Input
Amino acid sequence: MSPALVYWASLPFCTFVLLLVLERLRPLHTGRASTGDWLLNGSGLLAQGLLIPLLSLWLGQQLAMQLPSLNGILPGALGAFLLSFVGLDLLYYAQHRYLHSHAWWLHLPHHSSQQLGAWASARNTLWLQPLFVYVLPSALLSLLCQDKQAYLAGTLLTASLDLWRHSAIRWPHWLQQRHGWLCWLLITPASHHLHHAAGTTAINLGANLSCWDRLFGSYAAPQGYPLRYGARTRQSAWQQLLTPWHHKPDES
Output
């Protein structure tokens, strides 16, 4: 395994640990996690941190055997990285927009959290985890790339940014101001926290880049952090995890 691949493979874990430390030192929230949070957030981290990568790896191997003529037809490291970091990001934006408009009940468990944090980034019903574009669509795009490591680097950077944009850190004012320019390029924590604010509509739907929201009219500029988070639901944590189609909530 090359040193570069070791670096990229360790990036999400190191990012997660660093964000947890910063959230403890400079917390944005003061509330404590509920039992439901431990169930939904913990199972999500296990799924996205272990089970989904293994499933993606297996799918990639199967596709390579079934579609050998498509394996590695896109040369170059830069093209592979951009296909992952930019191309897959557009697919995620489209899927995320669909979830908010046509399959809200399936996405609601992610938005039921009353506070955000790095560990809430993977919070979801178990049924949605294997349906994300980071599984089968990502395996298909990876198949096309000659440089699989560069493609993997894009997905691991995306995973790290996902943790970052969900993180709940009270940044110093001067640093918060200096980071304002990042909103023109990336979905920042402030932008994504607005997406999770109580009573909001489908805004700031992108994962890595804010250009998709600006292009398709779903961008909203953050003005600080929300006072309240989460969508109301009558479902228990177990129902959200295992049977999200039952006992649908009042709001959409």
About this structure: The radius of gyration is 18 Å.
